[in-house]
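Work Package 3 (structural annotation) set out to generate three-dimensional models for the target panel prioritized at the project kickoff. During this period the team completed the workflow that converts sequence records into discrete structure tokens, so that structures can be stored uniformly alongside our sequence database. As a representative example, we reproduce one entry of 164 residues exactly as it appears in the project archive.
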Amino acid sequence: MAVDVNAETADDTATSIKSAGGTAWSFRLDVRAAEACRSLAEEVAKSVGQVSIRTKDLPAAVAFYRDQLRLDFLFEAGPALAFFMCGDVRLMLTVPESAEFDHPSSTIYFRVDDLDAAYAELSGRGVPFDDEPHLIARMPDHELWMAFFRDPDRNLHGLMAEIR
């Protein structure tokens, strides 16, 4: 199901969306809150520098992110850490040191220009997708399309394209 958002209702919109796989999300879009967060980010947090991704099998994870996603491999640090670059963001693959850190990673959304081409390319490399590219939302100036896939540890990630 796609969501239509227009500038007149975007300041306070409550809705839900459902993926092709059946997962439903509810959200409240508040443009005023988004503007406040953007202002805070400009003053405090300039950008995201690194994201940690938990793995139980570092060699398999390195192979996946290097060979299937073809991210820029930087280096490994000991038996429990490996680093990649994705644009300006560094990804850290890490084997959890304790139960406290042993949980699924956050969902990372990889921005692509051509979602269908990226989906076909990654599928051809054996990346396991949960669904096909599908429309998430119609915004005033673009459509948001996504497709979701899993890494070897079953962490959920997505490809996203903003079609203008």
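Residues 31-43 form the longest helix (13 residues).
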